[in-house]
Amino acid sequence: MTLRAYTFILIFSPFLLLGQTKPTETYDQNYQDKWTYFELEDTLEVKIWDHTGGGGCGTRAFASLTLVITADNDTIRILDLCNTSDDYEPGEIISVTPAKKPSFQVTLPAFFVEDTVSGEIRNTPSDIQILRTAYGKLLKHETTTPNT
Asked: End-to-end alpha-carbon separation of the chain, Å?
C-alpha cells in the first residue's frame, strides 16, 4: 500500500464508522420485580416447558427455574431451591410439591436475547410475559420397567 492509500484510510475512516451503530441495551434488570409470587396449595401434575438447573448451593442459595404447564393450561414459573439437575425434558410430566419462599436472597439463572436486526439486548419473552411464580419441589415420576 502506498502512503497516499494509508492517508486516505486515516482521513476517511471516522466517516466510514458513522453509519455503524453500537448495539443498545433494552434489557430490564429489574424484570423479576414484576413477577407475582404465590404459594402452591397442593401438589400439581405439570408438563415441563423449559428447565434450567440452579448453579449449586453452599455459601449462596441458587434455585432452578422451570416453566411448566398446569392441568388448567396455565403457564407458571417454578423455582426449586438448590435443584442443580438439568435432567428434565420438555413435555415430561412431573409433580411439583409446595415450598415456601425463603426469607433470604436466592440467585436465579438469568437469560437475555440479542435482536439479530437491531442488535438490542432484550429480556426473553418468558421473563416478561410469564409473571406467576411459585417456589416448589420438582419430583420426577418413577418409571417402572416390565419384567421380562
From this structure: 78
User: Domain coordinates of the chain in residue numbers?
Assistant: 39-111+129-140
Using alpha carbons, list the distances in angstroms from residue 119 to 22, 28, 114. Answer: 8, 16, 6
Close Cβ partners of 47 (under 8 Å, ≥ 6 residues apart):
68, 69, 91, 92, 93
Residue position matching grid coordinates 411448566: 68
Fold of 39-111+129-140: OB fold (Dihydrolipoamide Acetyltransferase, E2P) (2.40.50)
For 26-56, give one letter per residue: b (16+ CB within 10 A) or e: eeeeeeeeebeeeebeeebebbbbbbbbbbe
Strands 132-140 and 36-37: what pairing? parallel
The predicted-structure confidence for 62-101, as pLDDT tens digits, reads as follows 999 999 999 999 999 999 998 888 789 999 999 999 999 9
Amino acid identity for residue 147 in this structure? N
Bridge partner residues of 46 (DSSP):
94
Which element (helix H / strand E) includes 74?
none
Residues 119, 107: Cα–Cα separation, whole Å: 27
